[in-house]
Amino acid sequence: MIIVSVSKADQPAATTWPGEFLLFGDGTLHHITPAAGAVSNVANYAAAGIGSATITYAEYLALSGKPAVPAG
């Protein structure tokens, strides 16, 4: 498993960042950091030695990620 962060640079304009996820070996995403303002569990996983990577918004959608919702 790995921590994946969705790139904020290529997400659609005027949408909310989807957050960070655990990516399991079976290709499923498990939310660990919701959009801004929520409690983050990333530090706990990083402290346990779980590696991390950044994926593009397109890769996020290809992994069955939900489209970002309009901000506001």
Mean pLDDT rating: 81
Poorly predicted regions are: none
Q: What portion of residues is helical?
A: 10-25%
Question: What is the terminal separation in angstroms?
Answer: 32 Å
Order of helices and strands: EEEHEH
Largest sheet: 4 strands, mixed
DSSP strand tally: 4
How are the strands ordered across the major sheet? 3-2-1-4
Structural class: alpha+beta
Percentage beta strand: 25-35%
Oligomer: single chain
Number of contiguous helices: 2
Molecular structure report:
The chain is globular and about 35 Å long. The longest helix has 6 residues, at 42-47. Helices cover 17% and strands 25% of the residues. The N and C termini lie far apart (32 Å). The chain has helices spanning 42-47, 57-62; strands at 2-6, 20-23, 29-33, 52-55. With 72 residues, it is α+β, with helices and mostly antiparallel strands. The chain has a domain at 2-51. A 4-stranded mixed beta sheet has the order 3-2-1-4.
List the helices and strands and how they pair.
Blueprint (H helix, E strand, L loop, with lengths): L1 E5 L13 E4 L5 E5 L8 H6 L4 E4 L1 H6 L10
Parallel strand pairs: 1-4
Antiparallel strand pairs: 1-2, 2-3
